[in-house]
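ping. complex inputs:
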Amino acid sequence: MKKTIQAIILLTFSISATANWFNDDKQKPTQQQEQKTYTLKLAETWPSNFPIFGDTPKKFKKLAETMSNGRLKIRIDSKNKHKAPFGIFDFVKSGQYDLGHSASYYWKGKDINTLFFTSMPFGMTTFEQHAWFEYGGGQELMDKVYAKYGLKSIIGGSSGNQMGGWFQKEINSIADLKGLKMRIPGFAGEIMAEVGAKPINISPGELYTALDRGTIDALEWIGPSLDLRMGFHKIAPYYYTGWHEPGSELQFLVNLKKYNSLPKDLQTILISAMKLSAYQMYDQSEHESAKNWATMKKDYPNIKIRTFPKPVFDALRAANDKLLKKLAASNPLSKEIIESQTNYLRKIRAWTAISDQAYLNSQSK
Amino acid sequence: MKKTIQAIILLTFSISATANWFNDDKQKPTQQQEQKTYTLKLAETWPSNFPIFGDTPKKFKKLAETMSNGRLKIRIDSKNKHKAPFGIFDFVKSGQYDLGHSASYYWKGKDINTLFFTSMPFGMTTFEQHAWFEYGGGQELMDKVYAKYGLKSIIGGSSGNQMGGWFQKEINSIADLKGLKMRIPGFAGEIMAEVGAKPINISPGELYTALDRGTIDALEWIGPSLDLRMGFHKIAPYYYTGWHEPGSELQFLVNLKKYNSLPKDLQTILISAMKLSAYQMYDQSEHESAKNWATMKKDYPNIKIRTFPKPVFDALRAANDKLLKKLAASNPLSKEIIESQTNYLRKIRAWTAISDQAYLNSQSK
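pong. complex structure:
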């Protein structure tokens, strides 16, 4: 998912810190507000017509415009237009754009606590994490992180459980990871480095050739929903199951000053249209993954599905725990978020184990 | 979930068949419509303040009223008021109520094809079924079934994967099911009868006593989210994992004539508020199940989680397939829906197997 990070130089905007404009004033719109049209500009990380990810802001736009009877107008600029896919946070913070569609963990260089709201290695699946966001305190923690930048972050759609990636060789022990050149960015890349692998940054357009020529031994991308078009299944025989992004959630960003200037009905339309588009993106991801996986298997029946053996997971998990411990020690809010996620995961996974997991296992014997 | 069916005598309304009013006219609202207030009456199957299920229409009401700036007023009547929990279909069909909140499979006596839109034994999980509804043709099939009654049905929230029930004795073979007196209504009850069990109808208020005194040997209810308050864990040691309702989805019902009389913006607000409330009910169900399961385990650490052995599932599945085959042969639309669900399940389960299922299994070794 973090596919184009390394391809683009982050444009940095020099912006004075914005105040926290959030207020909970639930006044009815005045007659003037009721007739006023608000044009909101949205900047997305994705290129024009990027499937699934890019469909989500379009769905949001249509819902918001129809529900508001045209009082909200949403103008979407893709990266082709604004040229700064990783400038979304700054765009919306400064008010240059009112809204954004991106992924929270792209901003970890600005604020480490934005890291936790996309997907964490060994963390929650999408349906577990949605419960955390809505009922387990996740949204409140995300508000705490973003409010100080004058921003509100709302769930932006899940890609589902991301696959562990395409490998040229089987991974049978931790020794097989030593020196393995793999395209795997972000926090998962740090974990891989911790156990001796060599995370390498390669731009998306060059990934296929790099894997084909052995410049890299492995790479992770997303899953069948978006891997099919990349063609990796034609050149790498092993497709590993996921562990590093078990439920990657995108984000909508909202400039709070602009949000607070809207009448209450349009505020609710805005947030509801975002959330509904987000839930439906998860449906779309699952649908596209199912469809594309069937196509891949049909055309390339020899794709070998593998899962890392337990000792490999044990080492990766130990590295993960070590890095999280370091994070928690360095920042009280990080500690609070890590504890919330860890406790919630423990509780909800015990339920998943006797419900969906037990059911799926009983039917695949 | 089908908890109160047997407790209440279905009130039948004598209504002339309503025409199919559905039209796709996407006109902008006139100025008159823009100012008009529409009061919509909703009848729900649930008693007042029934948790989770009953919270969903309340959430819908709040969203619809706020987004419409009061132009939509929703009045909710619970079963305490209208006295006919299984009269919702007829209420909304006749226009006595504009909206309903219930479950599609309650209407199988009126139209067998309503059976398929809640949850089918050995069928899809909630996240699989949501993809089917939104992207796999599920909504279109549901429209086909309901349009001839002048109704529209929209997803109404999932209870998650329902547990297989509370048992006094362990089930080690199909012989243990012969003569087993179990409270298990609906299609799953028919499957159980097919393999020799004795499905028995007992009103919800008497279930605890019946299980305690041995009038029945087992019962299914919902899952930890709503089982905790029933207290079954205090008297039945075995809690079986689910197979008969792997993703039970409630439904909103809409009177199409009323729907078509609304301006386009309010139509979209109505449907969006329903869908968003539905997705969030699934989050709430997962959250409450996780929380209540932790409580049950803490207070009664000896609850024994069991899964039917493979030969038992094989027999139940054979019975299920036989009953479905009979249904498909008797009705062309049943055949179309069964084929759509069977094909979609095959495709999406292959994806679930290498994504969420593989991940969950790799982390619980």
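The radius of gyration of chain A is 21 Å.
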